Amino acid sequence: MVPDEILYRCGSFDWVSLLRIWGAVGYAPLLVLRQYRSKQFIPITHGLAQYEFLYKGDSYKKRVREISNAWNQTCRMKRMDGCLITTLKYNGWLNKRINDNIPKPCLESARSMEEYLQVVSSELDIIKQDFERKSLDSKRG
User: Fold this and answer.
1) CA 111, CA 108: separation in Å to the nearest integer?
2) Which residue range or ranges hold the DUF7745 domain (predicted)?
3) Phi-psi bin for 57: left (phi > 0), alpha (psi -120 to 50), beta?
4) In a domain, 63, yes or no
5) 8 A C-beta contact, residue 37 and residue 82
6) 105 in a domain, yes or no?
7) Residues 131, 90: Cα–Cα separation, whole Å
8) In this structure, is residue 56 part of a structural domain?
9) pLDDT category, 38, cuts 50, 70, 90?
10) Domain total of the chain
11) Structural domain contains residue 72
């Protein structure tokens, strides 16, 4: 469930900086929002990757202070429902779209359960015979 109001920037950053246990990471909620049928646009992400850092080195304390101060100046916006903005052509395409990432079962080589179990039991017999043969060889040798 997506909330009606979205936090989309902190201070002068065009994203939200998250302080984690070992370091900080930049997070762009507006990128995620696009996946929830919200208004389609390309949010500003320039500099997002450069703002990931670990808590070591000379300047990390300054960066943590900068992020903490930015959280005092958060910007929120109402979520815009994309369903009102999309065209009928897009809605038709979305309804007819086929997810081809999921492999379909190949019915040509499909076997019934009886055939499958028969093959498994014959393979088991072969393995059993091989084991018995090797056991006899080891007792003789």
Assistant:
1) 9
2) 5-98
3) left
4) yes
5) yes
6) no
7) 63
8) yes
9) low
10) 1
11) yes
